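cron nightly-structures :: item 1 of 1
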Amino acid sequence: MRKLLLALLLLTGAGLLWRLLSKRTVLPCPWWLSALVENPIMEAVAGADLLLDRAGVGVGMSVLDVGCGPGRVALAAARRVGAAGRVVVLDVQPRMLDRVRSRAAAAGLGNLETVLAGAGRGGLDDEDVFDAAFLVTVLGEIPAADRLPAFEEIHRALHPGGVLSVTELLPDPHFQSRAAVTRLGVAAGLRPGPFFGYRGAYTLHLLKA
């Protein structure tokens, strides 16, 4: 019990340090703090299956998860789309991608591909086309100069009628307002769609015509 309590205290302290540093610079959640995005609270507010349901992800679809972290949404998507579908995950941290690959292999998921690249930096192949894309509590971790290019990159990669699902939650130090997300989406040629949640914890869909 004492060891568990000590581990929780260390994790909490590390999390607070990350949040403090994040207020000064763009700093993605480190791989060793992935527990901060994989916990019952996150699952209750923005559960992977809930996000996939809202975006209409089903068997045979192609899905892009930008800033995938440890794969919370990506692995659920890979299970849902099945062998006929495809999931591509993109992240700037090799250790995060290592963890996603390891978990996918352990789950027998052969339909998941990883890309080591920053959003908006040309990491996607020109022939990549997706039915749905996800940015889950990651937009603020993308350098400001790359945010519009990231949205434009995703816009190009979506099928007509495809959806970009953007989720933002407080107290994430990188939290982005609905207005900021909408401005980026419109500037990239996407149309605002359904909104779920409330001001401090929401998912906004941006649609490709």
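cron nightly-structures :: done
The chain has one domain: 2-207.
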